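Dear colleague,

Following up on yesterday's call, I've attached the two folding results inline so they're easy to grep. Please treat them as preliminary; we haven't cross-checked anything against experimental data yet. The first protein's sequence and structure tokens come first.
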Amino acid sequence: MGMAHFQSVLADLSDSLTTYMRTHGDRSHSAPAVGEVEYHTTCVEVQWPWIAFPAALALVEGGRRYHLDVPSAVDVVQWLVSW
């Protein structure tokens, strides 16, 4: 199993999800799309602020866990209180 197989599996998964979303839609927000597909495009809008903050926390925590010179939140609070 190489990278080509992995990419093929992800492409198949993406096609399956796209087909499902186009045929079933989201009944609470919209009706299924009807018509012919002229070209393939992504129909998802990413809300970056909801992803950026948890990602930043994960990076800081990951750096702390791997003993990089990044203090934990508890260390920062203790340092501030000690002033």
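Below is the second protein, in the same order (sequence, then structure):
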Amino acid sequence: MLSFRKKLEVEDYVFHSLESMIPMPLTTLHKGFKRIVQRAGLKECTIHSLRHSHATILMNDGVPVRAIGEHA
């Protein structure tokens, strides 16, 4: 699957174990995020929805769509 991509290094991951520096499993990340959303009393959302919210905020601030897409 990664044959066409560069080899990923630990620094390429946003979320990883502090002890072993192993990338955090997606299920762990999603469960933790869901727990945070519930505790904060927020409307149900996903980590991916944060990406869209961020892009919307950038567009509202006048950042060109092309620039947003290149860094998303």
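For the second protein, one point worth flagging: The two ends are 21 Å apart (CA to CA).

Best wishes,
A.L.
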